[in-house]
């Protein structure tokens, strides 16, 4: 059974926020000259830009959904769909007297993001509790802008992908390993723990149910 937890402890241990910070850090290091900012949840990208939350060329990193928990060996994991919104305008290279259209800037950033997600040495973001990006669905790079936004000089794209945060929650399979004994109707199934304190609550409930 889940134990009561104070809200401050929940905030400090929030795995999604910690993962987003780690992803932002890696992207900022790998994409030099591109501003990387995190944003909470799924926002309209036009609002993100109009409120000056990310400069062009830039990436606003967030997540769009967290699917139902999956049980794995006593722990649970959270499949999270992350989204990197790419904000671009025409880019001038004053040193060489060149100018790049926004589509080319977006394609350069988007394909680089896909390459990072395909690199197993980078795509774990330096975390031990996250799986590599899922192949089904595979990471996707798609345009998000409207004709109105494009006419104003800005284009928006998004790269979305799913990763599982693993090893979350208490492991009821951890702890003392019971010895196997001959089943006994009075004492329950053929498991013997060193002491009652070593019996996980979930196992204790099963033993009590068998006795009743």
CATH fold label: Alpha-Beta Plaits
Q: CATH homologous superfamily - what is it?
A: Phage minor tail protein U
Alpha carbon gap, first and last residue: 20 Å
Which ranges are low-confidence, i.e. pLDDT below 50, for 5 or more consecutive residues? none
Shape: elongated
Describe the structure.
- The chain is an alpha+beta fold.
- It has a single domain, classed as 2-Layer Sandwich (Alpha-Beta Plaits).
- It is built from six helices and ten strands, in the order H-H-E-H-E-E-E-E-E-H-E-H-E-E-E-H.
- Strands 1, 2, 3, 4, 7 and 8 form a six-stranded mixed β-sheet that branches.
- Strand 5 and strand 6 form a beta hairpin.
- The longest helix is centred in the N-terminal third of the chain and has 16 residues.
- The mean pLDDT is 79.
């Amino acid at each position: 059974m889940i134990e009561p937890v104070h809200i401050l402890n929940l905030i400090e241990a929030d795995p999604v926020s910690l993962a987003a910070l780690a992803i932002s850090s890696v992207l900022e290091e790998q994409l030099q000259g591109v501003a990387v900012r995190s944003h909470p949840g799924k926002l309209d990208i036009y609002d993100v830009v109009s409120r000056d939350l990310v400069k062009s060329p830039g990436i606003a990193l967030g997540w769009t959904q967290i699917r139902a928990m999956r049980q794995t060996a006593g722990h649970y994991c959270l499949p999270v769909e992350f989204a990197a919104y790419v904000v671009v305008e025409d880019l001038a290279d004053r040193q060489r007297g060149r100018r790049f259209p926004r589509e080319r800037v977006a394609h350069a950033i988007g394909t680089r993001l896909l390459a990072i997600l395909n690199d197993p040495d980078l795509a774990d973001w330096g975390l031990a509790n996250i799986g590599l990006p899922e192949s089904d669905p595979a990471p996707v790079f798609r345009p998000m802008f409207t004709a109105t936004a494009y006419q104003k000089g800005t284009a928006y794209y998004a790269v979305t992908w799913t990763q599982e945060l693993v090893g979350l929650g208490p492991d009821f399979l951890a702890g003392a390993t019971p010895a196997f004994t001959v089943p006994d109707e009075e004492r329950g199934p053929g498991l013997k723990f060193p002491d009652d304190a070593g019996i996980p609550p979930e196992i204790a409930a099963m033993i009590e149910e068998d006795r009743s």
